[in-house]
Amino acid sequence: MKHKNYRPLPRNFFSKPTLEIAKSLLGKYLFRDLNGQILSGMIVETEAYHEKNDPACHAHRGMTERNKVMFQSAGRLYVYFTYGMHYCMNIVTEDKGIGAAVLIRAVEPIDGIEIMSENRKHRNHNLCNGPARLCQAMKIDKNLNGMILDCDTVWIGKGIKISEEMIGVSERIGISAGKELLWRFFIKNNPAVTRYKARFNISGSLET
Fold first, then answer.
1. Half-sphere CA count of 96, side-chain side, radius 13 A
2. At 40, which CATH number?
3. Which of 45, 91, 142, 176 has a CA-to-CA distance to 150 between 20 and 30 Å?
4. Other CB atoms closer than 10 Å to residue 38's CB: what's the count?
5. Quick one: three-class SS letters along 124-190?
6. What number of CA atoms fall less than 13 Å from residue 99's CA on the CB side?
7. Domain containing 33: what range?
């Protein structure tokens, strides 16, 4: 293994406020053990979703069979199927009973690039720049929904520190409601970030 940050983050890392976690996940390493082969990438783009005052959040109208994982304890995967063809991976946040999660939008591939390229039939910095592409490259699907992050299947390691001035903030992508919430975070000038021109694009702290 190439990384000194191979060990998973403790589960209490994900119990903090969702917006705080969405920013602090930038620079962390996402790991996937796929049949004994380790795939990894640095998280470069996230989006926050919260049941309170966020109509774009799956949990906004309360608990359902689809979103019930969002209301469970923090530090587990919420994987959902969308558009009849794609999976998206989220990390459940905050206390049990609160519907909140952080969508992992993009990672910069590090280990297992050949395997990820085969899984996606694609190769270059676009390999994992989007939640559906990321899940396809790392073979993350509904079978992992509700799984607690651990070092057996999927986990997140310490990574590198990203300075505040390197963090971009904008509206979230692909939503029809809640567009005024600037809850998308990304590492500026990183080629693995989703190619998207937001109407609002700022940096610095946010009011939550």
1. 3
2. 3.10.300.10
3. 45
4. 17
5. CCCCCECHHHHHHHHCCCHHHCCCECCCCCEEEECCCCCCHHHEEEECCCCCCCCCCCCCEEEECCC
6. 18
7. 11-202
Whether 6 maps to a domain, the answer reads no
Backbone φ and ψ of 69, nearest 5°? -65, -30
Which structure tokens are listed for 181?
A: 């919430």
108-157 confidence digits (pLDDT tens): 999 999 999 999 987 666 899 999 999 999 999 999 999 999 888 999 99
CB 66 within 8 A of CB 80: yes
Locate tokens 């990321």: which residue? 134
- Return the structure tokens found at 164: 């505040």
> Which residue's structure tokens are 């609160």?
98
Q: How many domains does the chain have?
A: 1
**CA separation for the pair 194, 104 (Å, rounded):** 11
Q: Which amino acid is at 193?
A: V
